[in-house]
Amino acid sequence: MGDYKFHNSIPSGRREFIKKSGIAIIGGSLVSPALSFGATNLYKDSTLKVGLIGCGGRGTGAAAQALQADPNVVLYAMGDVFEDRLNSAHTELLKVSGDKVKVDPKNKFVGFDAYQKVIDSGVDVVLLTTPPAFRPDHLQAAVDAGKHVFCEKPVAVDAPGVHKVLAAAKKAKEKGLSLVSGFCFRYDYPNRAIFGRVLDGQIGDIRTVTTFRHGGEAWYKERQPDWTDMTYRMRNWYYYNWLSGDFIVEQAVHSLDMMSWAMGDKMPISATGTGGRQVRTDKKYGNIFDHFAVEFEYENGAKGYHFTRQQSDTSHKNSVEVHGTDGSSITHIGRRYEITGKNSYTYRGERNNMFQTEHDELFASIRNGKPMNDGEWMAKSTMLAIWARMVGYTGQTLTWDQVFNSKESLGPKIDEYNWDLVWPSAPVAIPGKTKFV
């Protein structure tokens, strides 16, 4: 479990930031290497066939963005555990993408093994947008088969899953495959401008990073008479930590990803905090919490703070503030992007669709034969969220070495899933009583 070593150095200058971010300078502008020119490879002029694995709302959106990213891309295969989700996604994609949707009935796959059938159907690129529990195995299968991958966040729900993702990412790099993550804020132009300056040292040495992800309730699907236990849980996967990782892993992970970005993707040494469920207490909400508050401590003494809740009728806040010795960066998502202090700056440039940019850069990298690989940092960011969950569940201060080498595996093995399986969800965690594994 401890075989993977992360590169734990904080970039000290713009040149290193550019290198780590995968960005080049052309005419004074920051440009992804995926958008550079001149490379040739076997995909340069061919039609790229896309396979969609996971046909929910996020998967449908990702497929539409993939089809818009390149003029010679088609949707070739689709897979989901639910036939109605697959059919509704297909109908919606026909409306928005028209004749780029070329999914023959024989390439529509339903069931827990649909992912492998999509991968084996002859596609070049796969979009992994199922519930997070399946991501490590689906990624591993896609890379083993030599496919380029868009991998939605988070990439795992437990530490063993993170290790599996790291192994797959390493193999993707060795095979020259592109692997792009769904951590969309790293593809957002305003955030790239702000975090680029932070990593360039323009606010000095970082002392604290504070992130908020406060919002309301999520969706819920009422149980139907003909549903098995597994059907019900799969329809409401968000509320079971063995499928979603808990909401701090499934959604608030974006904030923790930006914390990690600001710190140059250097992992903290320890974390402490709390969490619980005070509002979302009904049995229908499975075993996840509705709030967490966690402090991370870094080796250089810097601190990272994360606060998140999902509770109705409470105020919303989605922000990242980085405070350094020479100033601060302030990001209020969608509204405010600025730096105060010695090198004051306000972003007034282009606003892009970050979800689209993910796919634009993915497909450009495939065309140009210059693979992108988000594997290591997307695994780190996911592990931060898993770490925060562990701290909240147990009420204990936990170190990086402890959590990264945790043996806790939350769900069934990939080949154990079937509609008659009754998986015993853990009881709702109680800090001080729930044990670290």
Automatic annotation (TrEMBL):
Occurrences of domain GFO/IDH/MocA-like oxidoreductase (ranges): 198-328
Pfam families named among the record's database cross-references: GFO_IDH_MocA, GFO_IDH_MocA_C3
Positions of the Gfo/Idh/MocA-like oxidoreductase N-terminal domain: 48-174
Keyword match Nucleus: no
Source organism superkingdom: Bacteria
Keywords, comma-separated and alphabetical: Membrane, Transmembrane, Transmembrane helix
Organism: Arenibacter certesii
Protein name: Dehydrogenase
GO molecular function, one term: nucleotide binding
Membrane-spanning ranges: 21-43
InterPro entries assigned to the protein according to its UniProt record, in alphabetical order: Gfo/Idh/MocA-like_OxRdtase_N, Gfo/Idh/MocA_oxidrdct_glycsds, GFO_IDH_MocA-like_dom, NAD(P)-bd_dom_sf
Keyword Iron-sulfur: no
